[in-house]
Amino acid sequence: xxxxxxxxxxxAAAGGDQRAWSALVRRYSGLVMATARAVRLVPxxxxxxxxxxxxxxxxxxxxxxxxxxxxxxxxxxxxREAVRLARQRQQQxxxxxxxxxxxxxxxxxxxxxxxxxxxxxxxxxxxxxxxRCQQLLAMLARDSPLTYREISVALDVRVGSIGxxxxxxxxxxxxxxxxxxx
Length: 182
What we know:
Blueprint: H1 3-14, H2 18-37, H3 43-60, H4 70-100, H5 109-128, H6 131-141, H7 148-155, H8 159-176
Helix pairs in contact: 1-2, 2-3, 2-4, 3-4, 3-8, 5-8, 6-8
């Protein structure tokens, strides 16, 4: 595709042309997905990053100064979102490991007390969440977490909505448990 054709697609998509938007997605979706996969995300997270990237493009497409820069913009945005999500997942894993970790006998009494208090804060915060958040987080925290497809059917939500819903639920849990700064 020539540069002029790409520029015309971007301008048309910014103007609301659905066919132009679909052509952009067809042309660049592989690039967006490859960028997210390069950060070594699981397939569900790659899908989340892709959706967020396209949503951000839809939000900002009119403000692109150079329509030919759309590929670079998509790569930069997908990489930033993938890294952000990878960091968030790492923090969630660390928090989950901390919460599920059985205190060792070697731990000082103060450490055991603090762990117990943290667990109780999280339990109270979890109990205060809306039922839908509790269901989703419970499905994801199982020893064998359900797949996004299974969760989609169980909760009657789109697969692509699960990641953003999970992030909002975890943010609510942090606030409810008094862990917002962690």
